UniProtKB/TrEMBL annotation:
Pfam families named in the record: HD, HD_assoc
The keyword Hydrolase is assigned to this record: yes
CDD domains (UniProt xref): HDc
GO BP terms in the entry: dGTP catabolic process
Organism, scientific name: Salipiger thiooxidans
Lineage per the UniProt record: Bacteria, Pseudomonadati, Pseudomonadota, Alphaproteobacteria, Rhodobacterales
PANTHER family for this protein: DEOXYGUANOSINETRIPHOSPHATE TRIPHOSPHOHYDROLASE-LIKE PROTEIN, DEOXYNUCLEOSIDE TRIPHOSPHATE TRIPHOSPHOHYDROLASE
HAMAP family tied to this protein: dGTPase_type2
Coiled-coil region: none
Protein name, per record: Deoxyguanosinetriphosphate triphosphohydrolase-like protein
Length: 390
């Protein structure tokens, strides 16, 4: 490992002190706790782009998280960073997603507007610091400080706040008791995990979008990063069948992105010459990055995916319906919290005001899988919103 890697022997430790494992480093143990969490298992039925009933081929938040962790390990290893910490942060980065992905998040954010809003990154931290309830001596997973800061700073430092911005309430509350130093950048490991998210989804969404027939290979071959990949495949394998041709082209695109991050980040690390993990945190700019040229090409892909996939009419039609599911469920549980399961009802006794009740209901709904939300909606509203024809 490089001098600037996070060394498990020097980790900042857990909020509740525990005996170290004889077999696993503290970061390995964090990763294992994340894999064994309920929230991680529920990612298997949470939307990446397509709602779960739309087909078994497409990515879910679980398969996406595994792909992020895979590429993150490769990049961390190439850069001399700690692969276990990188993997832990990568596997945890989407734990806070609601049913129906960003659509559910937007709906919950609006419903929670009077009570501090909702943010999936803050929710991931809330889950691993509070909502998982399996251990005798603490709520949450009691992860190391290093993993928690990586989860909190998925989008970079959270402080100082921009004008009119506030910290998500659950994050602010946790930070008040366990200072995650929100002014600094995260470790190199967490920065790798964050960029791996972009590498993974921009690649797999192209694959899923093609499979769904939302656009064609000829159309994506017009994009600056993708055209050369198809050209190279056609040159080497002039008579490849269409499926192998697609795979060969897209795996090259993936490789271009990974090589670019490794080369750019190596150059940045060489130039900054950080002498510790702490030095990376205080550098004032990220050390893990795409080159400017790659960033321009990536933005073109992101724009294409946004208009042709995330805002495609067929995706938007489902979006309207699943927004209704979340919008219907929230007031039902607010008005009659006795409908909540036992584990949540117990907490209602400690609720002091409407904002606390709303946060509880929000946490419960946010934890639902797509199918559980749809089932709950069908049971409570008497309609199967995706299948009933009106
Ligand atoms: N259907 C649908 N999917 C979306 C929408 N916005 C984003 N997605 C999907 C596309 C990508 O697979 C993925 C990108 O979002 P992520 O949650 O991974 O990253 P994002 O940069 O939005 O947030 P984050 O980095 O986690 O703070 O989510 C949307 O409005 N509708």
């Amino acid at each position: 490992m490089a001098i600037y890697a996070c060394d498990p022997a020097a980790a900042r430790g857990r909020r509740v002190i525990e005996e170290e494992s004889a077999f696993r480093s503290c970061f390995q143990r964090d990763r294992d706790r994340i894999i064994h969490s309920s929230a991680f298992r529920r990612l298997k039925h949470k939307t990446q782009v397509f709602v779960e009933h739309e087909g078994d081929f497409y990515r879910t938040r679980l398969t996406h998280s595994i792909e992020v962790a895979q590429v993150a390990r490769t990049m961390a290893n190439a850069l001399g960073l700690n692969t276990d910490l990188t993997e832990a942060v990568a596997l945890a980065h989407d734990l806070g997603h609601t049913p129906f992905g960003h659509t559910g998040e937007d709906a919950l954010h609006e419903l929670m507007a009077p009570y501090g809003g909702f943010d999936h990154n803050a929710q991931a931290l809330h889950i691993v610091t509070s909502l998982e309830r399996h251990y005798a001596e603490f709520n949450g997973l009691n992860l190391t400080w290093d993993t928690l800061e990586g989860i909190a700073k998925h989008n970079g430092p959270l402080l100082p706040l921009a004008e009119g911005e506030t910290l998500p309430v659950t994050l602010a509350a946790y930070n008040a008791v366990h200072d995650l130093e929100l002014h600094t950048h995260a470790s190199g490991e967490a920065q790798v995990a964050a960029l791996s998210d972009d590498v993974a989804y921009n690649n797999h969404d192209l694959q899923d979008g093609l499979r769904a027939g939302l656009f064609t290979e000829d159309e994506i071959a017009e994009l600056a990063l993708i055209g050369p990949a198809y050209a190279e495949v056609d040159r080497i394998y002039p008579s490849l069948d269409p499926y192998r041709r697609r795979h060969e082209a897209l795996r090259r695109v993936f490789g271009y992105m990974v090589s670019d991050v490794i080369d750019t980040s190596r150059a940045r690390l060489d130039a900054a010459a950080p002498e510790s993990a702490e030095a990376i945190r205080h550098l004032g700019r990220p050390v893990i990055a795409f080159s400017d040229d790659m960033w321009i090409k990536l933005k073109e892909i992101r724009q294409f995916l946004f208009t042709r996939m995330y805002r495609a009419p067929s995706v938007m039609e489902i979006r309207t319906k699943v927004t209704q599911v979340v919008t219907d469920l929230f007031p039902i549980y607010m008005q009659d919290p006795s409908l909540l399961p036992q584990r949540w009802r117990q907490e209602i006794e400690a609720v002091e005001d409407e904002a606390q009740l709303a946060r509880l209901v929000c946490d419960y709904i946010a934890g639902m899988t797509d199918r559980f939300a749809l089932q709950s909606h069908a049971r409570l509203m008497g309609v199967d919103i995706l299948h009933d024809v009106h």
